[in-house]
Design a protein that fits this description.
InterPro entries: Cro/C1-type_HTH, Lambda_DNA-bd_dom_sf. It holds the Pfam family HTH_3. GO terms for molecular function: DNA binding. This is XRE family transcriptional regulator. By secondary structure, the chain is mainly α. The protein has a domain of about 40 residues. It has 7 helices and no strands.
Length: about 110
C-alpha cells in the first residue's frame, strides 16, 4: 500500500482481507479451521477475506486466531510524552474537548 495515497473504504477492506487471506494460506490453514479457531462462521471469514464488509468482532477474532495481536498496537500508538505537559504542572487530560468556535471579529 502506498501511504501517500488516499484509499476508499472498499479498497482498504479488500487490502486488509487479502492480507489476512495470505497469512492464513502461508500458515497452511483452511478457512473452516481458522473460522473454528476464531469462533466465527466460515461465511463471516470469507466475507472478511474478500473485503465484503465484516464486523469488528470478526476481524479481531481472526487476527487473534492468527496470532497477530501485535498489529493492534501499530494502529494508532498513543504518545507517552505530551510536550505541552512538560511546560506546565497540569494533570493529564481525561477527555477530549469540543473545538472552540471563532468569534465574529476573528473570522473577519
Amino acid at each position: 500500500m502506498d501511504p501517500s495515497r488516499s484509499y476508499t473504504l472498499e479498497e482498504l477492506e479488500c487490502e486488509v482481507g487479502c492480507s489476512l487471506r495470505r497469512l492464513r494460506i502461508n500458515r497452511n490453514l483452511e478457512q473452516a479451521v481458522l473460522a473454528k479457531r476464531a469462533g466465527v462462521s466460515v461465511r463471516a471469514l470469507r466475507n472478511l477475506e474478500l473485503g465484503n464488509g465484516s464486523t469488528l468482532h470478526t476481524f479481531i477474532s481472526v487476527v487473534r486466531a492468527l496470532g497477530r495481536q501485535g498489529w493492534f498496537g501499530t494502529i494508532g500508538p498513543v504518545a507517552t510524552i505530551n510536550p505541552l505537559m512538560l511546560t506546565r504542572t497540569a494533570e493529564p487530560r481525561q477527555r477530549a474537548s469540543k473545538p472552540r468556535s471563532r468569534s465574529k471579529n476573528e473570522s473577519e
